[in-house]
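Good morning,

Both structures are done.
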Amino acid sequence: MDIDNWQSFLDRWNAQWVMAQGLTDPEEVDEEALAAGGLRFAPADEARTAALEERLGTRLPPSYRAFLQVSDGWRHAGGFVYLLGVSADVHWHGDAMGMKPLYEEQLDERSRPSEILLAGMWERALQLALDSDMTDVLLDPGDVDEDGEWAVYVYKGWSGEYPDRYASFAAFMQAMYRDFCGDHGHDPRFEDGMTRELDASVERARLACLAGEDVDTQMAVLEEAQSYGRPRAMMLRQQMAVLVGPVGHLAVPLDMTDPLYVHEAMPLHALDHCQSHRDDDWFVRRHGEEGRPEAEALLASVRERTFRYEPPGPFGRAVAEARELARWGDTEAAWQMIAAAVPDWEPYGPEHLAPIGLKADPLLGPLLTPERGRHILTTPRAGHGVPRGAASVPPHPAGPRGPGWPTGEDHQSWRFVAVQGITPRTLAERLGGTDLLAPHSEGEMWRLRHRSVGGCAYQVGSCGGEGDWSFALEWDPESYQPGRVTGVDAAVSRGTRSVSVWSERHHSPGPAFADVFRVAYAEDGEGRFTAVARGGVAESTGTPPEGLDPDLFGTALFGGAAPAREEDEEGPALLSEAEVRALDALAGAFGIGLPWFALRHGRLHAVRGASWIRPPGRGEAVLAFTRIRPSG
């Protein structure tokens, strides 16, 4: 709202303040201001305005000058300013507290122009706050825009913070008026023509959002209404914001009888609480003694990643099926299933805009990129709007790949084994795991690996085009040791076939720490083919599967470079492009590909399994290498 008419703007503020006094605790009513007619004063005529400019030795900025000609001063201009801008009393600030040297101490050659302006502001600014609680309202003639407006700086001396800047006196007064409305907007008795129009705009935006109309337009309408303290606007806008951005606070009233709070907002609050590492007792106490069991159970399920978002109806059934797909890595099919069911989604009540609780589901939440959240909001829901045909459903974002392979660009080292015709759960058992652990993200896997002693930590899922193959993958595994690699590929291939890959890189490969690429193929418990390329040396045994070129797994992985010598500082490095060619050949031969989005941005079940490196046998030495670079 621009102040294009100071008279109507100040009249409205004054009338609403008088109305608000009738809703306030009698002990807090400003009887003196009420007796004087409210917040405003008589206008300053041109002669009085000119006299002020002569006293100050400068022409006033346009918006402050226009304000004086409607009201020569203002009461209660913000939370801690009780009297503002009376022409007879405004004066140059003069930096009586010596703020300028303190701010200049922080300047150097990298300081921004805004920081330099702020340091000099204290001596040259005009003080408008005439009665306040340690708060200065300063008009700066050194910070002027193209319209001749001076910037306003508000400094709260009790806060220890930098001043707040406003582009002009008008912008400052707009902000203070919005704050005033926000302080009283929660009271349904605070009502007039302006508040009713704002509330009508909120309802129009709600219906437009449910009909799938433009997201940004509706969010702008709700944000405008929220800035004037309309509580419903905040609740609706924050639901939209959750789907197109990060999870944050939701202004849904805490009501354990309201399904919107219990099934949608409360899980998101629990997720935010767990991510913030705050005291659980704070979260539980908020829900009272009656809500304690439910709050404690929810916190535990969110922290242990066992929470399940379970909306009702056809949409809820689609969510349940999508979760099972995402559980094993087929996140694209899971998202397609959710997207197709959005028109069947129904709200819990008139304040419910979208299935925001999806963001709290440990398996489905990572699927909701901002683009996909926007897709949900632009799909007509709950019988609103007219279907516009098959809308384009956003796939995985451009950055993460679909089914594919890790490379040295993503991780230094990794290894996986894929087996045909068994479930991920069975594969975990064959790898020596017991129960599947909760779904883990990439970061959570890092922490799990560092807590695992005497074994390995994998993620498991499906990797075949039809879900026929299962895989286990470990990031940054234990170091490859020639001659001591267990036959994992053979052990897990009983009654079927398997393929395994081990890729290891070092920051500075050399004789002691050589890069390695190993591929092995097995059928029914017996190894059929193994190829190892290490430090520019390659060897293979057995016969590769039909259609697989063994040369791809040889020295070509190192560009044909010669192996490092003992006296060499560095040796040949495993080439990413050659590694991708080898992996693509495996994909073509077996029809497999790792679910890249699920591995990097989602969650897959984790399992602790046995080591791929057997202990040293009798007479085998265990060598430890330490590389020392010569100084100088």
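Second structure follows.
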Amino acid sequence: MAFILFSLLLLFPSCMGLGKITESLLGSLFHGISGKIISGILAITTIWTIVAFFIPLNIYVEITTLLLGIFCFFRYRLYNEWYHFFRKESLLISIISLIILFCSSFYPYILDHFGYYVPTIKWLTEYGIVKGISNLDLTLGQVSFWHIFQAGFSNFSDPFLRINAIILIVYTLYIVEKKRWIHLCFIPILLLFTQSPSPDLPAIIFSLIILNEIISENKNSRLIFLFSAFVFAIKPTMIWLPVLSVLYSAFILKANIKGLGFGALVILLFCIKNIWTFGFPVFPVSIMDLGVNWKPNPEVLKISSQYALLKTYDMQYSYQEIQQFSWLDYIKNWLFLNGIKSKINILFIVSLLLFTVFAFIKRKAIISLICISIFIKSILVLFFSAQYRFFIDVLFVLFFILFLDYFNKKRALLFFSCTSLLFIGFLSFPEIIQQHIPSFRLSNFMGKFDKKQLYQPSSYQYQPFDSYQVGNLKFNVSTNYPFNFDTPLPAISSSYVFDDAKAGIFPQLIDAKDLRKGFIWKKMNSQEKREAENVIQTIKNSYKQNK
């Protein structure tokens, strides 16, 4: 907890100082401390995304950013805003912040933390944005804007990768500043995302803030679309938000389309980043083929899409079984999976139907536009990969709209208090969930409370790895473990080694002397096939010996 507090004391003034500069150039979406911090986050992330094409996001980048932000913080005397704000609201802010700091100090347990988040951040801090990195490990081709922001502050300010806890405290500041108390109801659920740099948390928080501004009839269409585009760049499944902001600007504000230019530039930067790392504009969809020679092998993409379909059905059916489903089977089997995911899927569909009825009864233009945007996103998700984690944000939005007028401060605080105790217990005693909801598999990866958490967040280490070479690529694979979060770069997950070998290809360096030049895939010759077979056999043997 103490280390996360230290990170907070560094990052808040730095982001706020740079946010002040950003607002002087672009204007402010909303006034207040939280507004300046969020503007600073937008500016830092966008600049670092451009920088990362040329240099790694190392400690020199971080220290320069911190010093510049803190200088602006004192130059513009922004500490006065903190003083006046905390004189009135210190008790509530302090209590909620302590809860967030405590919950964020637990062990990370989201599997993407080990297979995607940490490896991505390591690549960014050591090499920057690397061309064709999806050829090395397809998952790394995502490179969320959020991981760029986290990577830049991971060298010194936030080495334990708890940036999400800090953003949740920023959200708390926004709630208190705006007096929109229904937002308090979301904090307990979001506590589950604070142990890892999951892009879900900032995407949900920023989308709820922008949605609140739209509901409050904020007329700054230019910045509403800019921040919506930023959320989309953090997590593309939030496509409904830029769609909503465009509809809101066109049909409610009657704004000039030229005002959407800054947001369009952010989306363009997002597409360029994806083309550089993945070969296509939007990960993981292989559409708009530009013919770049570092795009992934079609067979690997096919395997990935098959796996996404299996995940849609929670791995409860084989790919061959799913291929034989009728349209009725697709829907029925998805709704009635074994375990908790079935309940979430049913809740999602029921909530959409209820919201449609609600929008019809209300007959308000903004509610109708939200409904249209949500349906566009839902159709896209259901079409590509109907995994519950891709539409969980919709449940937050629907709850916000349906209960906006119900939750005053008293009711929201009561709801927050009760549910916070529930989720703190969930994190502290995961074995209870393991016993009562065995289908919620993530509970099996949760670590128990440790006294060390009071000063240092809990984190895992797994150092054993083996080194191999196929063609001109020397790489490392974690020993007897499927992920490479603690493995020296370049590292490949064993599953991708198997997938590449199955496809008859293997990643190779574009320049054998410079890893930063990136990766392509290459059909293996007979010698490389033997090398790959030896690697696979060694990996398999190590797992057998471990048993």
